[in-house]
Amino acid sequence: MMIGDRDLLLFRQGYYNLLVSLFWKEPAGELLLHLSDGISERIQAAGNLHPLLAEGWEEIRRFFTETPPEDLAETAVDEYTRLFIGPYDSTVNPYESFYFTGRMWDRPLADLRTFLKTIGIEKQDGYSEPEDFIAFELEVMRWLIGKQESAAHLQESAAHLEEEKRWLQHQADFLKQHLLVWAPTCAQDIEKAKGAHFYRGVATILHGFLEVERNFFLEWGLDKTVSLEEARRRYGAIPMWKGPTFDFPGEEPKEPLPSGKK
What we know:
Structural class: mainly alpha
């Protein structure tokens, strides 16, 4: 059903664009102004897809209503910092390894890198976060949808359909093995975090959108997604990952994924 549906592709791509922007780094003032524009219509449209989507947009509207316009950017930046950076300990650790094992830079990261290598993704030098950071995994999905879009523009043929199907299968595999296993729980943790206001809405949108994605991909095997508890049991007996650590010199890139992807 998803092959050849350009409107659905653009809808999914738009949400991944938004979520990457909101989780990659502190939100810019221009982005917040864009979100506030037409938010009532967005809430109504989201409600037709999933109640959590509408609830998340409603929470963001509440944040805009209760926060003076001149304080929007600073308040959202401060919240991002407290939740995900520190100064001492972050409130939420949005990393797959942490959710699977309770530790950072653990074996799940190595397994994720193996998966990314098979689909042609390599992290760009200068991006300091590991690949199992929530923004990077959302960017992986955005990148895969971009590859699907490129395939959809090929001349209509059996080969074109197979190419688009191939990239959709990669999306289904990534959701099933990685993002859908832990990110919904991470979103719930952000929603419940003390001091989360703007990001409570963002997390609820993430949670709702991932449930929409799960429904889109039911025919691709996502009805058999491994639970977070099963993933934790699988990794529980594995000792702390002793693989290499990495230093990434230079400034942060504008996007998590590289110009050098295959």
